[in-house]
């Protein structure tokens, strides 16, 4: 079997992964220890993000004709792909967190919802809170006026009860 035939399934695997992905982030992992890489992979897996190391030539062939074609210019050195099919910000958020923690990990570029982002764009995307955090903030802002109204009504009722007690004592005297 020729070498090309052996590489074809890998190229197809990459192409299929990035085809329907919400987010694809390219990182340079050179210099990470095995322990650091294991911690990073565990958190990415828990978030539903596929993280894999591929040869740059394989990624180059797989990216041709996809939204990720703009990433081909960055395929030098030791690169890994983080791919999420459901959450557009998860790979960038998790990788940026670990890039701050481990300076050896470097964000390179990415494609989020079909749009190319350089390193600065991926870092900006990483600062966006997760969907769950945004929903929690929305719920808190909706709930806040209602709870404030309940607090004010409670204070008015307590003040009304105190005034009645003072009026009753002054009537006795």
Biggest β-sheet: count, sense, barrel?
5 strands, antiparallel
Could you tell me the strand content as a percent range? 15-25%
> What is the first-to-last residue Cα distance?
109 Å
Helicity level: 55-70%
Overall geometry comes to elongated
Question: By helix and strand content, what is the structural category?
Answer: alpha+beta
* Order of strands in the sheet with most strands: 2-3-1-4-5
CA-based gyration radius: 27 Å
Total helical elements: 6
Enumerate the spans where pLDDT stays under 50 for 5 or more consecutive residues. none
Listing every helix as H and every strand as E from the N terminus to the C terminus, the arrangement reads HEHEHEHEEHH
Secondary structure tally: strands: 5
Mean pLDDT: 81
């Amino acid at each position: 079997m020729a070498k090309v035939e052996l590489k074809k399934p890998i190229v197809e695997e990459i192409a299929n992964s990035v085809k329907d992905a919400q987010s694809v982030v390219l990182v340079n992992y050179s210099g990470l220890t095995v322990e650091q890489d294991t911690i990073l992979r565990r958190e990415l897996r828990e978030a539903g993000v596929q993280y894999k190391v591929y040869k740059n030539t394989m990624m180059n062939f797989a990216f041709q004709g996809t939204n990720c074609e703009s990433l081909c210019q960055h395929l030098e050195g030791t690169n890994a792909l983080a791919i999420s099919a459901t959450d557009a910000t998860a790979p960038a958020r998790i990788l940026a967190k670990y890039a701050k923690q481990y300076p050896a990990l470097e964000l390179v570029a990415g494609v989020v919802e079909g749009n190319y982002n350089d390193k600065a764009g991926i870092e900006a995307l990483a600062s966006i809170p997760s969907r769950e955090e945004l929903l929690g903030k929305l719920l808190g802002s909706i709930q806040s006026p209602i709870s404030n109204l309940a607090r004010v009504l409670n204070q008015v009722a307590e003040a009304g009860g105190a005034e009645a007690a003072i009026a009753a004592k002054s009537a006795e005297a």
